[in-house]
## 1
Amino acid sequence: MTTLRYLDLILGDDAPEPQPVPADVGDDEALDAYSRVIVRVAEALTPTVANLRVRRRAWRGQEAEGGGSGVVITPDGFILTSAHVVAGADRGSAQFVDGREFGIDVVGSDPLSDLAVLRASAAELTPAVLGDAAKLRVGQLVVAIGNPLGFGGSVTAGVISALGRSLPTRAGSVTRIVENVIQTDAALHPGNSGGALADSAGRVVGVNTAVVGPGIGQGLGLAVPVNQTTRRIVAALMTEGRFRRAYLGIAGGPRPLPPRVAAALGRDRGIEVVEVVAGSPAARAGVRPEDLIVDLDGQPMHGMDDLQRLMVGDAIGRTVELRVFRGGRVVTASVTPVELSTN
């Protein structure tokens, strides 16, 4: 299968569906049914999860060793992990539970989404099936597989504790909020970063990224979702080694629309502009703090994740129409995004 075909699978919905565990069991067998789900997911996914070891450039030219986990996404060696796992490194090794070990190179890294893609010098690896975090529900069973504290192939289980969390990230002088982050109570520890968070059908729906507050936040882990936005990031990292973003120069968050505007537009939320960066494309277009953005090029804006989904390479240098609610009426502003620089 070619790399282009793998990209189709990553970007699309035509990946093979894992077979669900039969649900026709009685109440007295509920624990056994639960166990069978965990066992089946572990058996399917453990061979796809690698223990990563990398060497980073450190102070005064010295090297420091680091590590984490990664998930194989194509049979010919592409591995998905967290950007912070490979920060400052360009190569390392990936070891699998069957004892095989391969050299790896960093293909591309995107610190602003905390995602990175590696390439192992291997063929005929077992790839994971990517799911869609947009379909998750709070309380749903999830399984985390990784290498916490260096213990390879460790499996923990829990539930989706919350959806729609936010995770601040940074690259150079730029900060960004990753939206729709998954919160889970499946036990995560250092070394789990970059590993798989899977649903009960064995589909990878998140990349484990953070444990909140060692000693005070046990049972509170976060994962970057696998969804339409992150699939595009992964595909770009595989083909171009980076992910280009368009930049407007605003900070904001979701806010309910006034009832009259909501009734007229057929939606109840927009994005409130909290800050406009001086000299930015938004400032030049006349966007102001307290404006309520209702749509961009006809696409409804309910929150910053809707805006971020459109602020990709295709939008750079292309004038778009931004409709905002201001002073009791809806006005239109023409804005031309520029490429986001992290320098």
## 2
Amino acid sequence: MPFIKIFNKKKINLSILKKILLEKGFTVKKKRVFFNFYNLKSLYYTGFSSIFIILFSFFLPFSLNIKKDIVVAKTTIENNSKQNFQKVLEGKPIKKNEKIDDGLDIKNLFQDIFSFDQVPTDTVRLSASTIKQLFKETNYNLDEVRKKGIVKPIRLSLLPNEMKKIESTKKKKNLFIQIVLPLIIEENDKIRLDRKKLFVILNRSNNTNAEKKWLNLKFKQYGVLKKDLSTLKVRMDEVPISLAIAQAAKETGWGTSRFAIEGNALFGQWTWSGEGIKPAGIDNENASHKVMKFKVLKASVRAYQRNLNTHGSYRKFRSARAEMRDNNEELDSLILADYLDKYAATGKEYTVIIKKIIQQNALKDFDKVKLLPSSIQLKNLI
């Protein structure tokens, strides 16, 4: 029979089988495929595309936020010595192998000091007699300062030419102190305000863009590498008033030196390039240094403080000062002076002289005096 023959074959011929079934009276119906991939592939593609678009639109804002966070993270302040900084705040000792106050970026170190050259200032040089009369009329004298602890905000830009002609050593010293005292206090107040702002920023969990910008500026001003907050905290600090006065007195001969009169150089800072005053007796300009020259006295004071607060030669000075802060002690100029042996070629002999000037002239009386405030911020410091 054909039917049997068909099944004996290795392969069944479906068309013949269908024909035989029809002859026998069977009805053969074609099964309807509702979800044939080939027939509905355009529908599938459309569905998959729609789902992809929806998911892409949903996750796109998240990806943009992540990218934004990465960019912001790169601009935020990194505290590479967070543990050290916390130890400093708590007054705990730092291990010798844990480095802070290390390295110096000099690129923008004196940028704000050089800006004094661009700012119009009253640079009229008053005579010694005029200055004395001004101090008398404003009742500004050192006896009152020692008694009340308040200094009148009288800021002079230049020293009088007659400093050498003042015969009385006491009067000459008093006049010099009266001139430089407000300038030194004003710069210390500026540092104190910055230091106060630094701690406010550090005590917050999140900082504003303005605060981050301010921190970046201070990192540059103090030559801090890798945005290290511990280093900034150690460097951004005051210089005792008595120490600054003593060094200015030593370097200028109580305001009588040529460098002080001609270049407003109160602290004898050296420079090997740029504008400066050549010391007498040195002929070879290529092998000699110059004494840094400033437009106004205030710039000299700021440059001096920036020098002590950043230069590697005074790292031990800053470390001793930070230790005093950690122990809640007053900054002692007689102790800190011992760490300035590298300020002059005479080394330890220089520090001995500085301490004698402080003691013999009772300069420590001025360490706690305040400048009569000219703003609400300064008033809060008193």
## 3
Amino acid sequence: MRQEIIDELKQLLEQDSADIKEQVDHLKTRFYSANEEIEDEAAHAAEEEAFKELLAQYKAKRAESAAAQAKEQAENLSRKQAILDQMKEMVESGSADGVMANLQKMRDLQAEWKKIGQVAADKMQEVRKAYQQYQEQFYDLVKINIELRDLDFKKNLELKTLLCEAAERLQNNESIVEASRALQQLHDEWAEIGPVARELREDLWNRFKAASTVINKKHQAYFDELHAKEQENLEAKRAIIEQLKAINEPIVNGEPMTAKQWEELSGKVQELQNAWRAIGFAPKKFNQPIYDEYRAECNRFFATKKEFFIELRERRKEREQRHKEYLERQKAREERAKEREEQRKAFAAARGGDNLRRMHERLKQEIQTAENNILFFTAKSKTANKLVESMQKKINDLKKQLEEIQAKMDAED
């Protein structure tokens, strides 16, 4: 999953850095919140380094783009300021004849103004205000040519009416974020259009402002709801962390655990991880800290589990080795017992009836001991099963010998 995110980031970096900020932020969040169990530390570190390198490239491109944009905006500001200086001079020229003589120049300046790109945000309002002011002042001076002024006013009225209608249609846009961006564009266009007739200005502006207010309220409500949901997500994530801590606490404190219990807890942790992935973003300032806390609890659980099963495997190996050594000792004891049995048979034959009785008692004791010992072999393995079979065979052999001696004793009597 992390490699897929790296590949997506590589593709994004081929685009204009100014257009991909939200997508990069989203990939960054996905990358650092990916819940993959680390199997190969080297590969995991390599993925981390590759992703950081791509982020560094993105930041470099952003910085380069920002520098270029700042330079362009500074040049745009300089050009617009030069236009404003000319417009101010035209407004301050005073005479009606001078204003009329500058009418075409004003139009040329307006056309040139529209071709110039954006300026820095902290200068935008000031520049727009001055431009609007000089336009209105200039056209207010053009009283001598009412027909021409009315023509411009009529054109501007048509354009601004279209902007009002566009702003009102935005109320039906299901995406409030898109609607808000579109509204900002409409405001930019509004500022670039010249004035309308004085008696229409206030009503027209109020219509445009009313449509804008609807969008702005929806936009604010949308983000209020989004922030509320993010806070709800934060609480849900904190609840999951508390559950993880409740699982980890007895484990870390050394509470005895079986392999089955570990598997059951692993299932619960997996369920919590699935629940975490289903939760959306928390407030931005909490996203990384809350994830780091969550990741630490998950890592603590799986690290402790890994240690348990490593130790379990070692104990099993040690148990198997002890069992093997026990079987070897048991085999040696059986061989020695077999030798003693053969010697005993020979001795019994030589000693006669008394010996038969003593041998009869010894065999009974050996049978009793063997039957008691066989109860201790509970290990379930092929080796243990073979040992049980061997012990049972020995018991059967001893019982057979006991019957033979009993028969001889009965015959003597």
